[in-house]
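Internal tracking record. Fields below are filled automatically when a chain is submitted to the structure queue. Please do not edit lines marked as system-generated. If the sequence contains nonstandard residues, flag them in the REMARKS field before resubmitting.
Queue: standard
Priority: normal
Entity type: single polypeptide chain
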Amino acid sequence: MTGPGNVAVTQADREAAAVLVYEMMRGGLNWSSAKRIRDTIREGKWDAHYAVQALARHRQSHTDLLAAAREAILTLTPYFTPKHGVPKMPDRAKLEKVRTTLASIDAALGKQDTQES
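SYSTEM-GENERATED OUTPUT FOLLOWS
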């Protein structure tokens, strides 16, 4: 179940959230209550739960970043496989897209300054 503001959830998101919530709750609740909540999350009945959504957003942000990095690499690949030994220069728009993607990757990695080529 995905509501307004919620992202799509995978079974891996549910599994991770179920373990996280179970481990956090089992010390304060009786074992059967913590187990029931864990199982409810695993079954996909609580996809809007804050822990499930947090893990899904985290996964999605990295998936988006990887997709952008892949696209940037594919954009430049033809320029590194020159025909007849002479590489072709990419146009400015493609170079700017690659620089923007690299800046996003640097930000995700916590790097503050990037070197321009």
